[in-house]
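Lecture notes, unit on protein representations.

Consider one protein chain, 487 amino acids long.
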Amino acid sequence: MWATRKTRFSNCSGSEAIEDNEIVVNIGGVKQVLSGTVLKLFPDTRLAELGNYSSRNMEDLFALCDDYDPSTGEFYFDRDPDSFKCIMELYFYGEIHIKRGICPICFMKEMEFWKVDPDFLDECCKSHLSEVEQEQAEIRARVKMILDDMEGDSSLSHWQKYRKSLWKLMEKPDSSKLARAVAIASFLFILLSTVIMCMGTISDLQVEDDEGNHVEHPTLDAIETACICWFTVEYIVRLISSPKKVSFILSFMNMVDLLAIVPFYVVLVLTSLGAAVMKLGNAQQAVQALRIMRIVRIFKLARHSSGLKTLTYALKSSFSELGLLLMYLGVGIFVFSALGYTMEQSHPETMFHSIPQSFWWAIITMTTVGYGDIYPKTTLGRCSAAVSFLCGLIAIALPIHPIINNFVTFYNKQKILETATKHELELMALQESEGALPKALQKALKPSTVMGVSNNSMCASCGDTYLPLLEDSAQKVRPLSCMGNSK
């Protein structure tokens, strides 16, 4: 019924000729002639199966290819020709590399179609694939969370539904206008309490108590009390509505919230115990320390600022670079403080009285601050200071670029993930009929942004190749499209 081309060539010894089947394939309009001998090096692949038999029925044939032309002997495959070039590297080099611009997720589906084991993928490409799979998993989680928030669960009790609504009100500003108003109010209370705390230290705004001590103005104190009451109610409501109480309490940001509230009540309790207790020196120091701890409430802004969150996560991912920076500075500070102390001992009016005291001079010199309160007076000391200044520039500049690069990479990744998540929801809205989607989802999606997805986040050549969105969910939705190269 059909046959492959046969050629003859001599083996290395030249004693006899052997037959080599040539297979003509057409991959997405690109024709290639493949050697059957080379394809047989990997007999489990789809291309090797084409060359194993000289004839077969049409049913078996079309199980291997999309179409076949008996007149030209070509096998047609409606696949990506660029990906196929990478697949062919297996037969010539024994390993596969994903070329730049090809979506790793879609390429894995190409490998699955051509029956190529993923173990043949090079290690560098596997790491890139793992990163893209993590991004896909995060998008799935975001989409699933959005769908759960919009549709709800009919099996929940009345109290569970109420608690879930309360949690959305306090934690998800985008869920409703009321939730956004609560988030804005919380943000304003944080700013107000911070400003009041700073204004309370101005002596002109303070008043004297019965004992002649300067205390905060009663008006500022009342505003501070109102802010603390808001923070307290907010924390209690969030704790009650939290689905996981232990995780909520152990969360770093929730610990910050608690530290911003507790000092106020501790000071209130100590003050209410009476003047006898407050006369104790330790009690007064404790009160002063607790009042200073109010500055941690400024970190509450990170809950409402995506930029601060991005900075926090970027610093987490840059621990190694920060460690190198501290190590460079630590070594330089110790060396140059010792040199400065040694060089300045000959001067009668030296400012370097000991090596530990010289640490301060080394720190402000290497970090290019240079207050001028301590400075060398000898020629050798000034030369040492100049060298320490230059070494400080180098020590700081070397790790700074990777830290900035981590911040930019993480920030761009978060933007891409947000855009990709919204794009997936829009794909679902386009697939389903207008009345089949929840009203909340229809209201949340804006058709004008369907085509506004970043080219870095979506692969334009993927076509209809998608990943399962919610494999374990009974809800049938359109699956995820690939993200392509998000770097």
